[in-house]
Specification:
about 325 residues; mainly alpha; 10 helices; globular
Length: about 325
């Protein structure tokens, strides 16, 4: 099933779409951060951080899975396996919390009734709280990934995975597999991973999404009063924040759906291993890449510069087709 043409086609397409889409988000939004005058928009920096984590996961793992699916077998030695396993766990875990960061930041922004004050002539620097958040996000997940640098080895061509984690692997790659001292310690690490990087983020995203919707509802009730008092900044800000909330809600729903299917499939393998194991692991692999592949499309719906860039690219493509056909 894992080598069927349909699966290979879908998986390769999703990986390529994720690589191209997230690279586009980094390039377009990153350029606006560097070129725009005035204060740096924290929301754009957070989007770039999420897209960067998506791209790193896709390049360091999903793209290698494509190479493996095409029949090219590469096996690393023990030290390189430990290094790569640690990188996979670190990037995948950071990717989860980078996604939650978007939802949490929008909820915190909505709690401000008036728009933030931006000094166009002041220094272009990020808020200290945001810098601290990025530091904690990447450093704490690096600490969490330390066991992967120790409890992994290189297997042979016939090696099979006996323990799987959503945050690292759903099948052996480059010959690297987990090697915990005892099955109990391996399951303990898998359980802690399920709680920290699978259950808690989904719960927190649901809470912040609900909080954002309730905050928007309360802001909507004050919109008429804002018009009557001619409080233009507050009144004009409500529709824009509502559009942003819809985009972030769609982004988080996509994450919960793709992440949830992967969580169910992998934990079914770890704790049950019934007759549906192979099929569910295929579902887990597709679920892992779905969010990375489709999240740039959702972001483009709500981000003005991304929409403008995509429209410009499409217009150039549509313009070149008639020209080429006319020449032929």
């Amino acid at each position: 099933m894992a080598s069927s043409p349909l699966y290979l086609t879908v998986y390769i397409f999703l990986v390529m779409l994720g690589n191209l889409g997230n690279a586009t988000v980094i390039g377009v939004v990153g350029e606006s951060i560097l070129r725009d005058p005035g204060a740096v928009r924290s929301s754009d920096v957070i989007l770039v951080n999420m897209a960067f984590s998506n791209l790193m996961v896709s390049l360091t793992r999903n793209s290698l899975l494509v190479v493996s699916d095409l029949g090219i077998q590469i096996f690393l030695n023990k030290n390189w396996c430990r290094f790569m396993m640690g990188i996979w766990v670190w990037l995948r875990s950071a990717n989860v919390w980078s996604t939650f960061f978007v939802s949490a930041f929008h909820f915190q922004t909505l709690r401000r009734v008036s728009p933030p004050i931006i000094n166009l002539h002041g220094p272009r620097k990020l808020p200290k709280s945001l810098i601290l958040g990025f530091f904690l996000l990447w450093s704490l997940n690096l600490i969490y990934s330390i066991p992967a640098f120790s409890f992994s080895i290189n297997g042979g061509a016939n090696s099979t995975e006996t323990l799987m984690l959503v945050s690292s692997t759903t099948r052996p790659l480059l010959g690297c597999i987990w090697d915990f001292p005892t099955p109990a310690s391996g399951l303990a690490f898998a359980t802690s991973s399920m709680v920290i990087h699978e259950t808690i983020p989904i719960i927190l995203m649901s809470i912040t999404n609900l909080g954002s919707l309730l905050t928007l509802y309360s802001h909507g009730l004050t919109r008429i009063a804002a018009h009557k008092s001619q409080d233009a900044p507050v009144a004009s800000r409500i529709p824009a924040e509502r559009r942003a909330a819809k985009v972030i809600l769609a982004l988080n729903m996509l994450f919960i759906a793709s992440w949830g299917t992967s969580v169910i499939s992998v934990n079914y393998f770890n704790y049950n291993r019934g007759s549906s194991t192979e099929f569910l692991l295929i579902v887990a692999r597709i679920g892992n890449i779905t969010f990375i592949a489709l999240s740039p499309i959702i972001l483009a719906v709500g981000h003005r510069r991304l929409r403008a860039f995509i429209k410009s690219v499409l217009s150039h493509i549509l313009y070149l087709k008639p020209v080429c056909s006319g020449r032929t």
